[in-house]
Amino acid sequence: MIVGVDVGGTKTHIRSSSGVDVVLPSTGWSALDGASWLLERLPAGVTALAVGAHGAEDRAQCAALRDALAAALDVPVTVVNDGELLLPAAGLRSGVAVVVGTGSIALHDDGSGGVHRAGGWGWILGDDGSASALVRDAARAVLTADDQGQPPSQLADVLTQSFGVATILDLAYALGSDTETWGRHCPAVMSAFAAGCPLAESVVTGGASSLGTLVATFSARGLAFDDVVLGGGLVTAVPAYWALIQSAVSAAVPSARVRLLTAPPVAGALSLAHSLARSAR
Q: Dihedral sign, CA of 197, 202, 205, 207?
């Protein structure tokens, strides 16, 4: 049984060559010690395994997780960052993959094993354009407007409702006390954006622009690419946001072919697992 796994920040998708197709919450996942977590969830009879792992930020972390899984299963295993699943899921060997979900990261793959990253530093420090970062930036915009004596905006109203608090001060406390759940409140930001709230429009447009800037960093570093593939729960769930991102990336890198991944990223993991099985044979 050839198995591909996409471990994301919110959910984990497991798919096999024999028809297993399961989506589970990623609760309790940590790339630093993820082997036992995965082994509890994998189907029996695995013969080759490819994992795209959220939080596996460098080759050493990927190798450590790979070795632990391979030792436990005694089968060929490969582990990559979950963002590296987008290109094979799109049928590509090289290009730039951008994940826009709970967090965000961009990865440049030259098709020969050379992978470079940009972003993906966590939403407190970065991950601009992601669900969590949009909530962070929306809260900052609401707090700044309050400092300036402006009346509460629709964005302020939906955020306080989403967090279950009554005041702007309470909103600041709520954000500071639980940074892990910010992304869950992104639908509130998007609802204000869809309703035409100027403050929400500024936040969402700024998030899209930051992703265009992120992709352009690869060009500035002299890394060539033709294709840019975007995926992740947020960009696929909100067409209006995807349109803004597509425009921003195209403006930042006019020569690039920008596309939205329509297949689930786990398809890329299964493709890598099939390649691994062929190599092993």
A: negative
Tell how many helices (H) and how many strands (E) occur in the chain: 11, 10
The pLDDT tens digits for 74-101 are: 999 999 988 899 999 999 989 999 999 8
* Confidence check: pLDDT of 126 > 90: no
pLDDT in tens, 195-245: 999 999 999 999 999 999 999 999 999 999 999 999 988 998 899 999 999
* 132 three-state secondary structure: helix
SS3 41: coil
Q: 64 and 113 share a domain?
A: no
Number of domains observed in the structure of the chain: 2
At 277 the three-state DSSP class reads helix
- Residue in 59, 116, 3, 8 with CA at minimum distance from that of residue 67: 59
pTM listed for this prediction: 0.85
- Whose CA is closest to 84, among 112, 60, 106, 61? 106
Residue 233 and residue 105 share a domain: yes
Residues spanned by the domain of 114: 92-262
User: What was the pLDDT predicted at 208?
Assistant: 97
38 and 101 part of one domain: no
